Amino acid sequence: MEQTSSTPQTESRGGSQGNIRPRRISVAPMMDWTDRHCRTFHRALSQHTWLYTEMVTTGALLHGDVARHLDFSAAEQPVALQLGGSEPVDLAQAAKLGEQWGYKEINLNCGCPSERVQRGAFGACLMAEPQLVADCVRAMRDVVSVPVTVKHRIGIDTIEHYGFVRDFVGTIAEAGCDIFIVHARNAILKGLSPKENREIPPLRYEVAYELKREFPHLEILINGGVVSYGEIDEHLRHVDGVMIGRQAYHDPYFLSEMDARFYGGTAPIVTREMAELTMQAYIGDLVEKGGYMGAATRHMLGLHRGIYGGRGWRRVLSDARRMNAARSRADVDALFEEARSHLRPGLQEAA
């Protein structure tokens, strides 16, 4: 097991959180995206933003390769583990593993609408069984000392009345959960793909705002459709934190101002070049340990979004044949140098 840090790295760039909640800004758990390489990249851009793993099912941990799913480096902290499951005993065992591996939070997924997840009787369909979710939360809290949190939707299918999500949150809160991440859309369990479920059901931020008004003692984070600093500012007038999803992945440099804007950080904002050099060194280590270069560069392709020459930069760092051929740090350095030769900082990329 890789040794992880015992405390979040909240002071390393001269900033001070003071009384600011650590989850004020977070990056959403995103399947196939927020793996350890992606989190390392995001951490190179922001020291304070709270990061989440991809969803990991209890079955994968209890019957699979634990290290493959849970291993991460201290440089990624603070990191939360998101679990998928619906059996209290299994979730308790998985949560205990998560704490042992150094995660700062255990999050239960009650928001994923995919049919595969529904077949496992977890994700968004759990919103119809608040007492079961409460039992799951209670079982996890009994065996871990880190926070146990819940990420959920505001309703399922055609159930849109506020009382549904209010009663869900109230029931889970009685089990000891005091941090809720509210994806401010309904989940349509039949007829829409996961992608469509992120786009078609309308966003109703006012529901999350009302939850905060009704449960002022709870920490309420909002998620869904946030793409600008102004939107974050507006949400923080009503709730305790904002979770960024695909905006953080497709335009990762968006994260670079989070420390200064939302955590009171005083250090200079990380440049694109600084973040790239950090990842170049990281990928050099990865390749020399036998890893695949493209496993990390795929998460970086939006770094120079909008910069003239960005297409050429992306083309070099997404060439699977050349990624496979990289076997040494020198190979990695040469590819990054070639990619950078396409860039013309200060000029905007043609539309």
Describe the secondary structure blueprint for this structure:
Blueprint (H helix, E strand, L loop, with lengths): L24 E3 L8 H10 L4 E8 H6 L2 H5 L8 E6 L3 H13 L5 E5 L4 H5 L10 H12 L6 E9 L5 H13 L4 E9 L6 H4 L7 H10 L4 E5 L5 H7 L5 E4 L1 H5 L7 H5 L9 H17 L5 H4 L12 H7 L3 H6 L3 H12 L11
Parallel strand pairs: 1-2, 1-8, 2-3, 3-4, 4-5, 5-6, 6-7, 7-8
Helix pairs in contact: 1-13, 4-6, 6-7, 13-17, 15-17
Function: Catalyzes the synthesis of 5,6-dihydrouridine (D), a modified base found in the D-loop of most tRNAs, via the reduction of the C5-C6 double bond in target uridines. Specifically modifies U20 and U20a in tRNAs.
EC number: 1.3.1.91
Keywords: Flavoprotein, FMN, NADP, Nucleotide-binding, Oxidoreductase, RNA-binding, tRNA processing, tRNA-binding
Features:
eight-stranded parallel beta barrel; alpha/beta; 17 helices; globular; 351 residues; 2 domains; 8 strands; single chain
